[in-house]
Each structure stands twice: as structure tokens, then as C-alpha cells.
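From the pipeline queue, job 12 of 40. The input is one protein chain; the requested action is below.

Action: predict structure.
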Amino acid sequence: MPEKSKNDPSPPEDSQISRLDDEAIPNDARPICAKCLRPCHPLQYYCDRCASNDAINPLTPYIGYVNIRFCYDIYCTMWRKIFSDRDTSIANKLLYAVFIVLYCPVVVVVGLPALLICKVPPGPIRNAILVVLALALIGLGVFYAYH
């Protein structure tokens, strides 16, 4: 038996390591969503039926723009716990709000005004809120341009 060097990554011939047999996987096999357990297209990144933020494709977290939904799902979960979950304590709601403000300020700049606009019925008050928000965005733009 020939000697192997220390840098040789191949396993010894007599080892019991089992390898994945590609022939055992049928050609029409499809990955399933971890949330709704429905089959999805193999090239799909996320389930389009249940809007799950769990990646179907194992390489999704490594793709630049595709993994935004995967990486920032925690902020959506905190947002829902603040406004929709009745079991969340006040201390946790405040902690979630602090995390959102500190680590994802675009939610505060875009999400909070969108929430306010949706809650106010159409009319002059809603138009006034839209004008104030537009002026605030212009002010932020000018501030960041000259800062």
C-alpha cells in the first residue's frame, strides 16, 4: 500500500465514510419550504406561497441582494411583536423599539410614516401629515448633503 502524505485530503480506501449518491436523488425532486412544506422550484430563493423568510436554496444567504430578506427578517419580527403581539411585555416592546431605531433606522424613517398614513382616514389631516413627512424627508436630504 503506497504511503499518503499529510496534505492528501482523500479518505483511506478502507474507511466507512458514506458519500451522497447523486443517482439516488430523482431528476424531478424539488426542495420544500420549511414553513408550509410545499414543493418549490429548485432555483427559487424563498417560498412564494407562504412568504416565509427561510431560504429554500442553501446558497441564498451568500447572495448579495437576494439575502436582504433573509438577514433583516428579525426586524420585521420585532416590528410585528411591538404592534400586533398581545403577549409581548412593555419592556420587550421598548427593547425591540430601541433595537429597530439603533440598527435599522430606515424602518423608522419609512415604516413609521407609512403606519401613520395607513391609520389616518383620507382627508385634510392625512394630506397635512403627508406634507409634513415630505418636508421632513427633504430636510433630512439637505442635512445629509451638507453634513
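Job complete. The mean pLDDT is 76.
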